[in-house]
Write a structure and sequence with these properties.
CATH architecture: 3-Layer(aba) Sandwich
Number of domains: 1
Shape: globular
Distance between the termini: 40 Å
Bound molecules: NADP nicotinamide-adenine-dinucleotide phosphate
CATH class: Alpha Beta
Radius of gyration: 17 Å
CATH superfamily: NAD(P)-binding Rossmann-like Domain
Largest sheet: 7 strands, parallel
Number of strands: 7
Helix content: 40-55%
Structural class: alpha/beta
Oligomer: single chain
Mean pLDDT: 95
Strand order of the largest sheet: 3-2-1-4-5-6-7
CATH topology: Rossmann fold
Length: 248
Amino acid sequence: MDLQHQVVWVVGASTGIGAALARELQARGAKVAITARSEQRLQEVSGGAMLSLAADVTDPAALDRVAERITAELGPVDILLMTAADPRPMDVTRWDRDAFAEVVNVSLVGASNAIGAVLPDMLRRRAGTIVGFIAPVAYRGFPAQEAYGAAKAGLRNLLEALDVDARPHGIRVTTVSPVGVRSFAGRSLPGIPQTIDPDTAARAVCDGLERERGEIAFPGRLATPVKLTRLAPRALWPVLAQRISRRP
Ligand SMILES: NC(=O)c1ccc[n+]([C@@H]2O[C@H](COP(=O)([O-])OP(=O)(O)OC[C@H]3O[C@@H](n4cnc5c(N)ncnc54)[C@H](OP(=O)(O)O)[C@@H]3O)[C@@H](O)[C@H]2O)c1
C-alpha cells in the first residue's frame, strides 16, 4: 500500500508512538488527522500541517463527530490507527474497581468506539485498514497488569475476530505489537528494557503498513519471546512473571 494521499486518522496522537506515527505518515505523503484529549499537545504535534481534533475515546458521539469532520475536510478515512491506551497499574492490596473500569474503557471500549466511527463508511466503500496496538501483557498476566492486560488481551482478540469478519468486505485489520518503546505506556511493564525511540517505532509501523502486514511486531528480537510466553505452563507462570518483571 502506498501511504501517499491516504487519509489516516491517528487516535491517541498527542504523545509517544501516536505522535511520532502522525509525523512519519505525514512525511510519507498521507493526509493526517490526529485525536487525543489534549488539544494543546495535538497542535504542537500538528504544527499546523494536520487536522487536529480533540476528543475522548470514551465518548462515541465525539468520535463520530471527528470522523465526520475528517471526511468533510480530508475525505473518507482510509486508515484508522488506534494507539490510545491507559496503562495504569493495579494494586492488589487496594483493588480499585473504578480504575479497572476506566482502563478497560479507554484501552478496549475506546477502540470499539473508534472502529464504530469508521466501519460503516469502510463497509460502504469496501475498503479501509483498521490498526490496533496491543502489548506483551496481551499474551500473559504480568504483575499489576490486571486491568491493562485484560484490555490488551481483549483488544488482541477483537482485532483477530474483526479480521475474520471484515476481510470479506475488503477491509484489512492489522495488529501492532510494540515492546519497549520510550514513552508513557512503555513504562508500564518493569523488566522490559525501553530500547526503542518512538520515531523508530513509527517507521516500523509505516513500513509494515506499506507491506500490508496483518501483524507488525518490533523489535524483532523480542517479538518471538513475547509470543512464546503463551507456552509457559500455567503452574509456573506466577514465578516466571515475577522473574521477568524484576529484571534490571
Ligand atoms: N511504549 C511501549 O513500549 C508500548 C508497548 C506495548 C504497547 N504499547 C501500546 O502502543 C500504544 C501507544 O503507546 P505509547 O507508549 O505511545 O502511549 P502514550 O505515550 O501513553 O500515548 C497514549 C496516547 O493516548 C491518548 N489517550 C489516552 N487516553 C485517551 C482518551 N481517553 N481519549 C483519547 N486519547 C487518549 C494520549 O493523549 P491524551 O492524554 O492527550 O488524551 C496519548 O496521545 C498504546 O496502545 C500502548 O498500549 C506501547
